[in-house]
Design brief:
There is one protein chain. By secondary structure, this protein is an alpha/beta fold. Helices cover 53% and strands 15% of the residues. Strand 10 and strand 11 form a beta hairpin. The longest helix is centred in the middle third of the chain and has 65 residues. The radius of gyration is 48 Å and the shape is elongated.
């Protein structure tokens, strides 16, 4: 993001506008500058005025359009401001982005205006409003005129009656008083109806509207004059949830029933402009002094906001329930992960103690049986096996860590499926022989070529075989079969072992998963072997699935891998060069015991001349006189580190010819990159194997004959 912003304001390659062309005069330049600044200031003022107008007029319709229009004007003004700035600061890239933003805002304004055009067209024009006002005034004038004539006639008739009969005059006076009271009550009624927040509609006995208050006008869209004497169904239109006109009519029901049930009823009505809104209504008949139905009155109010609030409350409650469910699932996942961690740590402790106990006992046997070669040889072989088990445990843990963090790199090369199977069988054969299993292999006679990392793929296949051997009772049967089609190859590993429980089957490839977590019944391992299998297979573009009919019915693992065509034959390689004896080797290790064992191994197996140093300073001094050909250097040395030792050794006379090998417990890519940068030729992870040490002494740097054979010693 920072690089993008830096490039946005980068003026490289763009001269200021004063330098663009030869026709710019001061007058012309300042004319453009002041014009652009004037336009910008005006375009800045217009949005401010619009924003103030929208802020002050809360009831203004289409507020979004005003705001978008203000943003459009402001963006246009910004482009003019940038046009003036470019005369000195040529930020053409930023100016282009602002213009692009202006275009986006402009078209957004256009697209926002299109949907509201029908609503704007539905608004009543000033002429229509003026005509309605004139009509109302005309009606009021006619009413006043009629009232004047009526009063005149009443006065004349009253005078005539007064002259005819004094008693009748008294009666008329009383009626006049009553009429005045009725007019006052009628006035108070109209004021009251206009003041309440509910809509009120009154009808006569035929269902024609005789009265509407102001709220009813707003909810229906009909004026009281326009609605007068109209059937209620024409003004008050009820619809169902789908917008279809409903036959329900509360006034009709009240007129027919002659009473009010007192229960408000929810309904939907259609406004005169076509919009719909939710209401709650109740209707009651109007009775005369003789208890005759002379009309009905309906009271209703808008409940849209209440319904929206209720829906929002229901949605909120649903979200809370979902969040609670998610939280419960997350807590359960954390508990499961914590349980698997505890099981893994217990299993790791168990698996590490398994080889350590026989190693300690074997050391006691070696000390006491030095004069019994057969017992001594048995103890040494047993220690080798247990050490291999420890190394395999650590390697599996490192492989899982690398794969889950995406740090592993595959070294693909064409190889036959049969060769891979043979290598996997060779790795798993000790466990298969130990359990006295029979192994049947059925592969197609035609070679099947794969493009895989041979070491990793053999490891994956061996893990499947080891799993079958561990979970099959002694003397069981294991079979390997393969088939191929145009797209890929399918490998099937079948056994008649303990099988897989149906509940465990979907999780058999999960990390730290084992069929039985109890240490007493454990078949060994950390529950990561099948996880490695799935990860390595999928990294090669393949798939692996496990099948079982349940406990006691054995299991089957099916691996699918993409195949390739047969590669071109390579020229026959010469035999690998054997390491030449008698090399000068300098071992730099602060652990005295480890340094001594490594030095004796190099002397006894290959007859190398070995010197040992236990810190970096002593190693540099010894190298000057010893002139080693190979330096095996630990990185964690007291005083100066192994990387500093490597840098100093490279500075010594002849140091550039020495093979420098880093010995460390860390084998990540960043660790290898660090040692390579310090000057090391090779990077070995402790403890180095005999084969790794052998390959060091056929390295092309000290054994040029090995270069012709393409020997690689990197581990």
């Amino acid at each position: 993001m920072w690089d993008f912003l830096t490039r946005l304001f980068d003026t490289s390659g763009f001269p200021p506008r004063w330098n663009c062309g030869t026709g710019w005069t001061p007058f012309l330049g300042w004319l453009h500058i002041f014009s652009d600044l004037g336009i910008w200031s005006a375009y800045l003022a217009i949005p401010c005025v619009l924003s103030f107008f929208v802020w002050r007029r809360r009831d203004l319709p289409f507020r979004t359009i005003f705001l978008l229009f203000g943003a459009f004007i402001l963006a246009c003004g910004t482009t003019h401001l940038l046009e003036a700035i470019i005369f000195w600061w040529p930020i053409y890239r930023f100016a282009g982005v602002v213009k692009c933003f202006t275009a986006i805002v402009s078209w957004t304004t256009v697209f926002a205006m299109v949907p509201i055009v029908p609503e704007v067209l539905q608004l009543r024009s000033p002429n229509e409003l003026e005509r309605e006002i004139k009509e109302r005034k005309k009606v009021e004038a006619e009413l006043r005129e009629m009232q004047g004539r009526l009063e005149q006639r009443v006065a004349e008739r009253t005078a005539e009656l007064a002259q005819a009969n004094t008693a009748l005059r008294l009666e008329m006076n009383e009626r006049s008083v009553v009429s005045d009271n009725l007019r006052k009550q009628h006035g108070w009624l109209r004021v009251t109806l206009a003041s309440i927040a509910d809509g009120v509609i009154a009808t006569d006995q035929a269902g024609r509207i005789s009265l509407m208050n102001r709220c009813a006008e707003q909810l229906t869209g009909w004026g009281s004059l326009a609605a007068a004497e109209r059937p209620l169904e024409e003004v008050f239109q009820e619809v169902d949830a789908d917008g279809v006109a409903s036959e329900a009519n509360p006034i009709r029901q009240a007129l027919q029933a002659g009473s009010n049930n007192g229960v408000p009823r929810a309904a939907r009505i259609r406004h005169r402009d076509g919009s719909e809104r939710a209401i709650e209504e109740t209707a009651t008949p109007i009775l005369s002094d003789a208890d005759e139905i002379i009309g009905a009155v309906m009271v209703f109010h808008d409940i849209s906001e209440r319904l929206r609030a209720e829906q929002a409350l229901r949605d909120s409650e649903q979200r809370e329930r979902e969040r609670a469910s998610e939280l419960e699932r997350a807590v359960q996942e954390v508990r499961n992960a914590d349980r698997r961690k505890d099981e893994f740590l217990a299993m790791l402790s168990h698996e590490l103690r398994n080889p350590l106990a026989p190693l300690r006992n074997a050391l006691l046997i070696v000390k006491q049986m030095q004069h019994e070669p057969e017992t001594l040889q048995w103890a040494v072989e047993m220690m080798e096996r247990q050490i291999e088990n420890l190394v395999r445990l650590v390697d599996d843990l490192l492989d899982v860590s690398r794969i889950t963090r995406g740090k592993i790199e595959l070294k693909r090369a064409p190889i036959e499926l049969q060769v891979l199977v043979e290598r996997a069988v060779e790795i798993a054969k000790p466990l298969i022989d130990e359990q006295r299993h029979t192994l049947e292999i059925a592969l197609p006679p035609t070679p099947i070529w794969l493009d895989v990392d041979a070491v990793r793929m053999a490891q994956a296949l061996a893990n499947v075989l080891n799993n079958a051997a561990k979970y099959t009772e002694a003397g069981g049967a294991i079979s390997i079969s393969a088939e191929a089609d145009d797209q890929g190859a399918t490998l099937r590993f079948q056994d008649n072992g303990v099988g897989i429980d149906a509940a465990l089957l979907p999780h058999v490839f999960d990390l730290f998963t084992q069929a039985d977590h109890s240490l007493e019944r454990s078949k060994g391992g950390l529950g990561i072997g099948l996880t490695l299998v799935r990860s390595l297979i999928e990294m090669h573009g393949g798939s692996v699935h496990a099948y079982s009919d349940g406990l006691g019915h054995g299991s089957e693992f099916v691996i699918r891998l993409p195949r390739i065509g047969a590669p071109r034959p390579l020229p026959e390689q010469a035999a690998l060069a054997a390491p030449a004896p008698g090399r000068r080797v300098l071992v730099v290790e602060d652990n005295v015991g480890a340094a001594t064992i490594l030095a004796r191994l190099l002397q006894m197996v290959w007859s190398h001349q070995v010197e040992v140093a236990h810190d970096g300073t002593a190693a540099i001094a010894l190298a000057q006189s010893f002139q080693p050909e190979v330096v095996l250097c630990d990185l964690g040395l007291p005083g100066i580190s192994g990387c500093e030792v490597a840098r100093e050794l490279r500075k010594l006379p002849g140091g550039e010819r020495w093979l420098l090998v880093a010995l460390t417990g860390y084998g990540e890519e960043k660790d290898r990159a660090q040692t390579a940068a310090a000057g090391f030729d090779q990077h070995l992870v402790k403890p180095p194997g005999v084969e790794q040490l052998r390959e060091l002494f056929i390295h092309p740097k000290i054994n040029p004959t090995g270069a012709a054979h393409g020997e690689s010693t990197e581990k």
